[in-house]
């Protein structure tokens, strides 16, 4: 799933760029980290990701640093992710992988199942709700509880929920599997393949390095350079976790180590801690999606910047909220508040969490050296650029010429396959894409049937009556519901699970309270991106950045809340006037 797609970046094909992401074993995410990550017992303990090598043997990120300090490089050697592969030249035979989870965790299993059973048999069925609808709701709630408590991996638990639907004859086979033909879900799947293309060709790495070269003379300039490159890459690289782990974290680590800022000790605050927090907290461009907070604004900026954006768009359509020309509408509504967030967030962090190193005069030279070592833009990189320009153009103008977004994505993927930028093994090994297809489809299918059977309308009418009893105007109800949707994310490990569980219900509540439909749908979607850095487990990219070892857990929670509140204020104030100007209400 998108939240934890990082493990899918490794592959066994022979054509790609090499990058290394070190994740310290002090990361503490019970039930949340993907199993393929393995823990080494070397000193210091490191978790690494390794993707593929290129036949042209592109250098490690900022290899100039490694040649200057070979001792340090040997200490932080690259370890292969797949330690079981006998033909992997980077594998370490002494490395013992973490044992995989076998079977379900008993206590989370009992709690998750009990919730569904209590709702089904102990809670009286409301008048107006059919037995079929009430049984579906009980299974859905049990499924959601499992997503939070993780008795099994997400897709496995969703499969059990799907099986329960069929065994209890709550839904027919055709109805239960109907969401597997959903266009938006397949668009999300294909987006993972595009992300692999960016990593494999090295294009994302090259773009980010150029921004470091141009803006990297100061720590604040470095932060803005990384943010701008995030904004540029986001529309065409829809996996926030892939952007974080495959492009930005390796660059941040190289820059930090060159400044003497090492993870896990007092020197981390020289440079690394600030850059990590800046990338986490700057909202991904709602223009498309989010790099945790920077990622949050960048993700919000573009419809195609994050998988959760596309899911929000689909679920809104299920409730009859149709957004015309979605790519442009999304960009226009997000542009002003997102850009203000992108500008303000690094400055606020610079005051609240200042780096000890304020100037980085050597960074542009290091970046220039790296670009020189990388050589000229390769054929595959140019192909990637052309394909993504075509795909984005079709996403923007597709409605006018009758090409749906998913067809535009399929055209782009077909070009990459035909020209050899990607091969089918790349697609098959992108496990997170197929994992996402499995559990997203189950959740979307359940949510759709809850709407069709009247459960969502019943819930929204109950909330509406309560709000009316408080005599709240729609702006006040809007604020209460948005704050509730935001704070509930402390219970979720990942943004997409949150959307699948609660987006439809909260949108229905907004509509029942009289909130303009487009405003409600977009605000909830943008809100989803803004809480991506609330905790170290709130999104896949948050786990990646926290795992780098540069930030302490108390700082993550404190800064996550403060910056989320800051961005919520920016969005609330700016969008009030901007959306009024655009005529959204």
UniProtKB/TrEMBL annotation:
Flavoprotein recorded as keyword: no
Subcellular location: Plastid, Chloroplast inner membrane
Molecular-function annotations in GO: malate transmembrane transporter activity
Topological relation to the membrane, as annotated: Multi-pass membrane protein
Entry keywords, A to Z: Membrane, Plastid, Plastid inner membrane, Transmembrane, Transmembrane helix
Broad class of the protein's primary localization: plastid
UniProt cross-references to InterPro entries, sorted A to Z: CitT-rel, SLC13A/DASS
One GO cellular component term noted in the UniProt record for this chain: chloroplast inner membrane
Spans through the membrane: 106-123, 135-160, 180-199, 327-350, 380-397, 403-424, 436-460, 472-493, 505-526, 559-579
A Pfam family the protein falls into: Na_sulph_symp
PANTHER family according to UniProt: DICARBOXYLATE TRANSPORTER 2.1, CHLOROPLASTIC
Family recorded in the similarity comment: Belongs to the SLC13A/DASS transporter (TC 2.A.47) family. DIT1 subfamily.
Protein name (database record): Dicarboxylate transport 2.1
Species name: Populus tomentosa (Chinese white poplar)
Taxonomic lineage of the native organism: Eukaryota, Viridiplantae, Streptophyta, Embryophyta, Tracheophyta
């Amino acid at each position: 799933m998108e939240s934890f797609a990082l493990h899918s970046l490794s592959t066994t094909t022979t054509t790609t760029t090499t990058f290394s992401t070190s994740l310290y074993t002090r990361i503490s995410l019970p039930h949340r980290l993907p199993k393929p990550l393995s823990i080494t017992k070397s000193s210091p303990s490191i978790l690494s990701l390794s993707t593929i090598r290129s036949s042209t043997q592109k250098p490690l990120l900022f290899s100039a640093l490694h040649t200057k300090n070979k001792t340090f490089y040997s200490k932080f050697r690259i370890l292969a992710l797949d330690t079981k592969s006998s033909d992997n030249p980077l594998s370490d035979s002494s490395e013992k992988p973490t044992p995989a989870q076998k079977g379900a965790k008993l206590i989370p299993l009992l709690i998750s199942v009990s919730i569904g059973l209590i709702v089904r048999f102990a809670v009286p069925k409301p008048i107006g709700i059919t037995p079929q609808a009430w049984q579906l709701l009980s299974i859905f709630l049990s499924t959601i509880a499992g997503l939070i408590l993780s008795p099994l991996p997400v897709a496995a638990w969703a499969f059990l929920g799907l099986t329960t639907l069929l065994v209890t004859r709550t839904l027919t086979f055709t109805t239960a599997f109907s969401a597997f033909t959903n266009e938006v879900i397949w668009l999300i799947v294909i987006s993972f393949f595009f992300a692999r293309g960016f990593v494999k060709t090295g294009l994302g790495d090259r773009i980010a390095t150029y921004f470091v070269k141009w803006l990297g003379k100061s720590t604040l300039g470095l932060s803005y350079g990384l943010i701008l490159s995030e904004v540029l890459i986001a529309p065409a690289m829809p996996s926030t976790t892939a952007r974080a782990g495959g492009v930005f974290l390796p660059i941040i680590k190289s820059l930090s180590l060159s400044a003497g800022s090492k993870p896990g000790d007092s020197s981390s605050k020289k440079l690394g801690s600030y850059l990590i927090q800046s990338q986490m907290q700057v909202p991904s461009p709602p223009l498309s999606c989010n790099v945790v907070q920077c990622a949050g604004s960048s993700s919000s900026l573009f419809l195609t910047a994050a998988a959760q954006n596309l899911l929000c768009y689909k679920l809104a359509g299920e409730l009859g909220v149709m957004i015309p020309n979605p790519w442009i509408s999304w960009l226009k509504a997000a542009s002003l508040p997102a850009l203000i967030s992108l500008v303000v967030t690094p400055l606020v962090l610079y005051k609240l969490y200042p780096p000890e190193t304020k100037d980085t005069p050597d960074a542009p030279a290091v970046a220039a050296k790296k670009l020189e070592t990388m050589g000229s833009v390769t054929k595959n990189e140019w192909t990637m650029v052309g394909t993504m320009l075509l795909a984005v153009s079709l996403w923007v103008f597709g409605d006018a010429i009758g090409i749906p977004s998913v067809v535009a994505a399929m055209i782009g993927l077909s070009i990459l396959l035909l020209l050899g930028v990607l091969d089918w093994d790349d697609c098959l090994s992108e496990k997170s894409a197929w994992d996402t297809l499995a559990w997203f489809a189950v959740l979307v299918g359940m949510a759709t049937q809850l709407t069709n059977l009247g459960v969502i309308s019943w819930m929204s009418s109950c909330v509406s009556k309560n709000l009316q009893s408080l005599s709240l105007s729609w702006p006040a109800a809007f604020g209460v519901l948005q704050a509730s949707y935001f704070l509930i994310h402390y219970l979720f490990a990942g943004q997409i699970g949150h959307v699948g569980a609660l987006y439809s219900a909260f949108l229905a509540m907004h509509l029942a309270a009289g909130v303009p439909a487009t405003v409600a749908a977009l605000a909830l979607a943008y809100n989803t991106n803004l809480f991506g850095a609330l905790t170290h487990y709130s999104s896949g990219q948050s786990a990646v950045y926290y795992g780098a070892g540069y930030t302490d857990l108390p700082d993550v929670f404190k800064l996550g809340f403060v910056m989320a509140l800051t961005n919520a204020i920016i969005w609330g104030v700016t969008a009030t006037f901007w959306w009024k100007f655009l005529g959204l209400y």
